[in-house]
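Re: [help] complex structure
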Amino acid sequence: MTNPLTPVDAALTDGRTALTESEAKTVIADRGLVTPTGELVRAPDAAVEAAERLGFPVVAKVAAPSVQHKSEWAGGVGVNVNLGDADAVRTAATQIFDAASDRDLDAAVLIEEGIDIEAGLEVIVGATRDPSFGPTVLVGLGGIAVEILQDTSHRIAPVSTATALEMTRELEASPLFDGYRGSPAVDREAVAEAIVAVGDLVAEREAIREVEINPLLARPDGAVALDALVSLDSEVHGDGDHRSGRRQNRS
Amino acid sequence: MAVQDVFDPSGIAVVGASDTPGKMGYEAVQNAIEFDGPVYPVNPSASGSVFGREFLDSVGAIDGPVDLALVCVPAPVVPSVIAECGEAGIGGAVIFAGGFAEAGADGEQLQDELVAAATEGENEVDLLGPNTSGFLVPDESLYATFATGIETVPAGNLAIVAQSGGLAYSLAFQAENRGIGVSAMVGLGNRATVGFGEAIAYFDGDDRTDAILLHVEGADDARDLLETCRAVETPVLAYNVGEEDVGDFAESHTGALTGRYELYEAGFAQYGVPTVRSTAELLDGGRALATCPRPDGPNVGVVTAQAGPGIAIADRLKAAGATLPSLDPETQAVIEDILPGITFSANPVDTGRPMPAFGDVVAAVARDDTIDIVLVYELYEGGIGYPTETLEELVSAVDKPIVFATGGPDDTLRETLPELEALGVPTYRTPEAGADAVAALVRAAKRTRAPDAVSPGAEVSR
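Output below.
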């Protein structure tokens, strides 16, 4: 059995503070989460070949440790969805490689099977190490709901599946999980398992500062992690205690 | 336990004592001498005496029992004073001065020096503060503070542990105004070594304390606080402030969305601590938790002599997550027997007005097995009074919280309510205060202290 945290160790050794998307997806897939099938490629031709193996449509994304906000990178060429044929894939991949080359960036391109986001409910699942509380988890509705409504539920991690289920029920948007106006009910349990998994990752590994799956697409049968982010604390290599001291008070 | 030296000293040194009225070092001596134990004013540049006690040059010159130093000197001198306290075997100190970790990088460094002075010597010194207004133990006349007027705070069974010294006094004076007694009032300030965990553990072991009331505004030792709350026997109630604060690191949604307030609310629920939304609720709920047996569940039976207040109570209780179940048919039959044609004999039970048989109705509801908590509302009516005897029987017979809310002339209530309080029935003067107190009991019942065992449907505020 391979060490599930190998990408984390490798990144720490390189002094990096974040994993690439495909590394992050490897880490969460190892915890039982479903991720889209994908391949990392180094040239437009290889991108087309990968897309043909995966089947159209596909998604093309820039893959480089230094690019965390892929959709904002290089004027928006970093993420291209719903690529329906070979020409579209070649164009998208070429744009990414050109933009990377302009920026002196050693980037690959991640080609992934396209997932129909209309066929599910987008949620955000995250875990973060708070200096005061230690590991914590959250779940919220994805997309504009999380940004505008801040419809989220929090717990101190690690959490059980029962607690994670309860978190999903606390959301104002909870009824959406059960189907609404013709949209199908989605797999609440799979969302709960994802909450448990990200909480465990941060709770078990001191060097992991944050794990975020956004969006996690909850579907009628299971949930798939469309994007994943793992941030590291490069100052923590081992699993030692890393608590901050007491500080201050407003009187 | 080392914090014993702070909260239960045999003698007190006031370092930086002064004979000039109005100075901190004067007020601290004036407060300290109320204590039934030796008090030593220390100030190398003073001579003569203050309040009949000779000034000493240093804590090392004290000849007699002393565990606690009230440190009234400016911040830069504090670390060396604490080192001297350690050498003199003084195990506890209250540091009033600000200018430490709350005051930027230099202050943080000074606080580090302070902690080093307290912990790295031969004898450790437990530090309350810095940046605190101190603490009170009214039953001991122990006033470790420079604040004035605090000797009026009555002794009782509520321990107030507040992050902010200012809020600690706000609570203590509210208690005083309302005749509520406190076992202790503590302002933690910067929590150099005595933090929430240490204070909660100490008052859990304090015989005078029957409930611990917390004010929290974002301490950096939250995990320790939560773990301690889960471990102690004494009921804990928390007022968590800072709902409008937002996460200050926003590299991701997770970071931006994870605020301290939300984590405290979630954490208190997970670790079995009921929470409230105001200082008044903290005192009201705290009295109920301190006085009543722990309820078995969230099912409240409301008996009211007047419809309006009863409806207001029921409304507020439901919003707080309480359940008002239908009474057992047998209980309903008993009530209909007592009051034929009663307007509403389910729950709330409305008797329409005070009447001699009111107590029998309360008793029927209290004895109903579907009910975990009883809340009674009855305006005072001369000639009928309160069903005191019935309540006295019930308190020992049913082993459930029985809470009483009422209204009437101030003089009458002052005279009559202590009787009910003495029976173990907490009393309240507004429908809402009664409902809020019961809501705290409901949350205590719903939030188990087992790790990660919040029952399905348990409410968590967000």
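Residues 238-251 of chain A have pLDDT under 50 and may be disordered.
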